[in-house]
Amino acid sequence: ALAWITARRGWEAALVALAVTSLAGVQVALWGLHRLDDYYSARGLVQRLGALHRRFAPQAPFYSVDTFDQSLPFYLGRPVTLVAFRSELELGTAMEPAKFVPTLREFERRWNAGGEAYAVMTPALYAKLVRDGLPMRLLAQDGTRIVVARPSARPELAPRREGWLPALLGALRP
Question: Mean pLDDT, the chain, as a whole number?
């Protein structure tokens, strides 16, 4: 096509056509790129959790079960406890073993022990644990991860207050 434009209109027209089509191609690629976000970042998942008005108690454990997305602790604003996953974090888990659960069986024991707790895992592992009878309440999911809460006798988590005055009053309350 560029050879035809060059022969008919000259090299300047061909250069303009190349620039316009290149720009259009890049715009189309960027337009569809956001569809890959869920595969490379936990940002969308955490935003969905926030949209559901979920607040996580800071003392409640948040487990990352048999997987680890490095963006998850950043977007959650809190650390996660690794379960049955070491990979490049093996040195850290050896230095701080209290922040690591070595097996799924130990995770299930801790999960069933009671109290408020949350976990992120793959859909395949979620399906397996549901089949095995582990009590979980689905909170949010994306293409690669599922976030669950441990069912408890406590009522549903309270919705976030909107506006600056309720937020200020909530921050001042002990």
Answer: 78
In whole angstroms, what is the distance from residue 65 CA to residue 124 CA?
12
**pLDDT tens sequence across 67-96:** 988 888 888 888 889 998 877 777 777 788
The two structure tokens encoding residue 137: 């309440």
Predicted pLDDT at 114 = 81
Of the chain, the percentage scoring pLDDT greater than 90 comes to: 26
Instruction: Collapse the DSSP code of 61 into the 3-class scheme (helix H, G, I; strand E, B; otherwise coil) and give the result.
Output: coil
Q: Are 99 and 117 in contact (CB under 8 A)?
A: no
Side-by-side strand order, sheet with 137-141: 100-101, 81-83, 62-65, 118-121, 146-149, 137-141
What is the secondary structure of 106-159 as a DSSP string?
A: HHHHHHHT-S--EEEE-HHHHHHHHHTT---EEEEE-SS-EEEE---SSPPPPP
The packing angle between helices 2-9 and 11-33, to 10°, is 150
pLDDT band at 141 (very low <50, low <70, confident <90, very high): confident
* β-sheet bridge partners, residue 119: 63, 148
The answer to whether residues 68 and 87 touch, using CB atoms and an 8 Å cutoff, is: yes
Strands 100-101 and 118-121: unpaired
Residue pointed to by tokens 């689905």: 138
